[in-house]
Amino acid sequence: MRIIGGQFRSRPLRSLHGTEIRPTSDRLRETLFNVLTAGNPSVLEGSVWLDLFAGTGAVGIEALSRGAAMVYFVESSRAAAELIQKNLEPFGVAGKLSILRQDVRRAISSVQLQKVKPNFIFLDPPYAVQQLYRETLASLGDSPLSESALVIAEHEKKFDPGENFGALCRTRRLTQGDAALSFYRR
Where do the H-state alpha helices sit in 38-162? Predict the structure, then answer.
C-alpha cells in the first residue's frame, strides 16, 4: 500500500496484520481522487476532510498529499489510531491533522462543536457491520457538517447503503472490482 499522487507520491503506508482493518485499495483511492479532481485539479487545495472509520489513514493521507489543509482522522481502535500516527510521522504534517480516537457519532458531535466545515467526508466502516453505514449517513444527513460537503461512502459492490438520508441524496455510484463508492450531497 502506498500514496498514489501528490507531494508524498509512492511513499509506503503500513497496515495492521489480520482482518481488523481493510484498507482502501490503491486502485480505488486513485479512482476516487481522479473523480474528485476531474476538470479541477486544484479542488483539493486547502480542503478540509473528515476520514471516518479511518483505519490506516490512507484516504486522509492521500488528501494531505494532494493539498488538503486539514484532515480529521476518526478511528475508535487504539491500534489503528496508533498506526495512523505512525503512517503520518514521515510526512511532517503535524499541524494539518487531528486524530480523534472515539466513536464516529461522538466525533461528529465533537467536530460540529468546533464549527468545522468539511469539504469532503469519507466513510468506510467495516463491510460486515452494514448498519454503521445507515447510522452514519443518517447522522450526517441531519448534521450541519454536510451542508456543503461531498460525502463519500466506500462499501461492497453487492451492498447498497441507500439513496437518501435526511437532506443527503446519492448523486453517483461508482463500482470497481468488489468495492463501490457512493457519493452524496445535500
Answer: 58-65, 78-88, 104-113, 131-141
* Closest among 53, 66, 64, 47 to 24, alpha carbons compared: 53
Does some domain include residue 1?
no
With respect to residue 80, please indicate whether it lies within any of the assigned structural domains. yes
Contact between residue 25 and residue 174 where contact means Cβ atoms under 8 Å apart: no
Task: Give the chain's residues under pLDDT 50.
Answer: none
Give how many domains the chain has, as a whole number.
1
Q: Does 15 reside within a domain? A: no
**What's this model's pTM, rounded to 2 decimal places?**
0.94
Residue 10 lies in a domain: no
Q: Which are the contacts of 109, defined by CB distance < 8 A and separation ≥ 6?
A: none
